[in-house]
Specification:
25 helices, mainly alpha, Serine Threonine Protein Phosphatase 5, Tetratricopeptide repeat, 448 residues
Length: 448
């Protein structure tokens, strides 16, 4: 499944104000790409636009959203063992009530458990946006940003928490530690034994106070950039300062300057793989932004070319990462998805055959192996993988629907109409609106 095409299709429907269709397509996109933040951003936009002039009341949500809420509640009980299913259950409820704090928080919790940090951050951001007086979502957001190495952003979030709850000592301490960590990077006090040692220094304390400012406007960021560039004049080979310059330039959308700063940092520390991967992430983000800019201008053909370039770059980048960390199955799983999207099916199969050994990835890997063997027209092998993917699954979760849909499609391709009808029928009985299952059944009835 080409997730990029689904996202493009959903975005086009959103532009045409066909919100229901956009929601349907983007739900598919987040199902196939659980860590794709862009798909979820567009999905939430479509939901909010749909209810822009008449947001459903709590009573209506209680009535019409009950099945989705029930599914979310049930999925929440097993979110540790199956976070992706819980994420999809939350998304289905959010189509009825996109501002719902509890659903967004559960989405964030499940995404964090599944290792989908970008989505977890987005979910907590959404929850805090629609519940501005509640520091709970902000604290979870701050913790995740800190864990993700986004120190400045985490500091800004904890600053908001302290403003809301000055008595929250946990937030006060976190803000102080983050400010110290920011200052450690920029003042060159790499040898300081702790943040307390740093604060004892008078000049560092002054710098620490300066760092508590929140840079929000372009003017603030330009001032910040000028400060960093002045520091670089004195210490042109300071890697931490170059990283800070890249961060500010990225926020200003000055991609060339950001990449130039990171290129210099990588040149200074060529063996630092984390630095090299940060450079790769930045380059991918730049391509994504170029693609979005072209789509906004209606230049779809050019955007499609950028999509192809982006996929090529991602494949090359994740190949490098897997080479450095061959036992990291999360990287191998993501590489498998990228290889499959590029049409390198045999290589994708090789990656999924590695990740299937881990219980965390087993079911999803088997599902993908089934799709890959189907694409190679090796239908018996495909059915065998899909049947194994169903083992241990209960009820009709989003994952089970995906597996049964693939099984129905394989049976149909094999000319086994009765078996195809049986698989599609199991989905139809519980979720008549799932993908095109109603049309598939009607087609099978007609041909039969």
């Amino acid at each position: 499944m080409n997730i990029a095409k689904l996202i493009d299709k959903g975005e086009e429907a959103l532009k045409k104000k066909n919100f229901d269709y956009a929601i349907e397509i983007l739900l598919q996109a987040v199902s196939f790409g659980p860590n794709n933040r862009r798909a979820r951003e567009l999905l939430r936009q479509a939901e909010l636009k749909k209810y822009e002039h008449a947001y459903p009341s709590k009573g209506l949500v209680a009535v019409f959203g009950f099945p989705a809420r029930l599914g979310m509640t049930v999925a929440g009980l097993s979110k540790k063992s199956n976070p992706e299913a819980c994420m999809m259950a939350c998304e289905r409820f959010l189509t009825k009530d996109p501002k719902n704090r509890a659903a967004n928080m559960m989405l964030g919790d499940a995404a964090a458990l599944g290792g989908h940090l970008d989505v977890a951050i987005f979910a907590y951001e959404t929850a805090s946006e629609h519940s501005p007086g509640d520091p709970g979502a902000l604290k979870k957001l701050g913790q995740l940003l800190w864990k993700n190495g986004q120190i400045s952003e985490a500091h800004n979030v904890y600053d908001k928490v302290v403003r809301l709850r000055p008595q929250d000592q946990e937030a006060v301490k976190a803000r102080k530690n983050l400010a110290a960590e920011m200052s450690l990077k920029e003042t060159g006090f790499e040898s300081a034994r702790s943040s307390r040692d740093l604060v004892r220094d008078k000049d560092a304390a002054g710098k620490l106070e300066q760092e508590t400012r929140i840079y929000q406007t372009d003017s603030d960021l330009e001032s910040r950039r000028a400060e960093i560039e002045k520091k670089l004049e004195a210490e042109p080979n300071d890697v931490g300062t170059l990283q800070n310059l890249a961060d500010v330039a990225k926020r200003l959308k000055d991609w060339d300057a950001a990449l130039k700063a990171l290129d210099r940092a990588v040149e200074l520390k060529p063996d630092d793989t984390t630095l090299a991967f940060s450079r790769g992430d930045l380059a991918m983000e730049r391509l994504e932004q170029r693609k979005l800019d072209l789509l906004r201008k209606g230049k779809e053909a050019e955007a499609e070319e950028i999509s192809a370039d982006l996929l090529d770059f991602r494949v090359a980048e994740f190949r490098k990462r897997v080479k450095v960390y061959p036992t990291d199955l999360n990287l191998r799983f993501r590489l498998g998805d990228l290889l499959y999207g590029k049409g390198l099916v045999d290589e994708a199969i090789g990656e999924f055959q590695q990740t299937v050994r881990d219980p965390k990835f087993r079911s999803e890997s088997l599902l993908r192996l089934g799709r890959a063997f189907k694409r190679k027209t090796q239908y018996d092998l495909a059915l065998r993988q899909l049947a194994q993917a169903l083992e241990g699954q209960t009820g009709l979760s989003e994952r089970v629907k995906e597996i049964r849909y693939e099984m129905g499609d394989v049976h149909h391709l094999m000319g086994q109409r009765a078996e195809a009808k049986s698989e599609f029928g199991k989905i139809y009985e519980q979720d008549i609106a799932y993908r095109d299952v109603a049309d598939r059944l009607a087609e099978l009835e007609k041909s039969g």
